[in-house]
Amino acid sequence: MQKKYLLIYEEISKQIQEGHYPPKTILPSENDFADMYQTSRETIRKALNLLAQNGFIQKIRGKGSLVLDLKRHQFPISGLISFKELAENMGGKAKTTVEEFTLEMAGRDIARELNIDDDEKVWKVKRVRHIDEERVILDKDFLVERHVPGLSREICENSIFEYIEKKLEKKISFAKKEFTVEEPSPQDRKLLDMEGFHAIVIVKNYIYFDDATLFQYTESRHRPDKFRFVDFARRMDTRSI
């Protein structure tokens, strides 16, 4: 016989998919569900944990279980897509605001990330991405000025990738990405709508031209409820290893 928490998980997940519990609503409490299903809170907790693991809900401290939008925007892990391209796919529900824009010496930490000298000039750009009128991504971009000359605040509000490919006629080829999950920083909480969220997904991007020149390092900080990071993986033939 199937365990009770699995049956409860399947029933609640079906209700979420059918719209009985719409996105951005809070599910009934563990006590309410326990009464509803005539079971223990521990059984309900197991079902809710499984719902969270499979992307149906986000547990928010002090509030409960937030129902997530199952049509969350997908970021391909192995792909390289600009925010403007993502916004176009969302039908104009997104915009970018530039919080900081300067040209200055890289400094030791950024120079190390970009593999350049400490005194080389880099564009330092801080951008907030808005989706559905919520501030959900903080991008910290660092671009080597000699590789990307003529950058402006207006270009950063539109699309840096588009400027590089169409105006500078350079080919962006590939990126190395690193993913971590951390506690939000004070700056995250200041610039993003983080009320109730206690984790942030950080994607570090090292972006290269087709001649393998590293020209951009970006730290992209995502609120966890708006995105699914997806990839396609193929099993290798281990017989040849």
TrEMBL record:
Stretches assigned to the HTH gntR-type domain: 2-70
Keyword DNA-binding tagged: yes
A Pfam family hit: UTRA
UniProt superkingdom: Bacteria
Transcription keyword on record: yes
Annotated keywords: DNA-binding, Repressor, Transcription, Transcription regulation
A GO biological-process term: negative regulation of DNA-templated transcription
InterPro entries: Bact_HTH_transcr_reg, Chorismate_lyase_/UTRA_dom_sf, TreR, Tscrpt_reg_HTH_GntR, UTRA, WH-like_DNA-bd_sf, WH_DNA-bd_sf
PANTHER family: HTH-TYPE TRANSCRIPTIONAL REGULATOR TRER (PTHR44846:SF12), MANNOSYL-D-GLYCERATE TRANSPORT/METABOLISM SYSTEM REPRESSOR MNGR-RELATED (PTHR44846)
Protein name, per record: Trehalose operon repressor
Source organism of the structure: Mesobacillus boroniphilus
Gene: treR
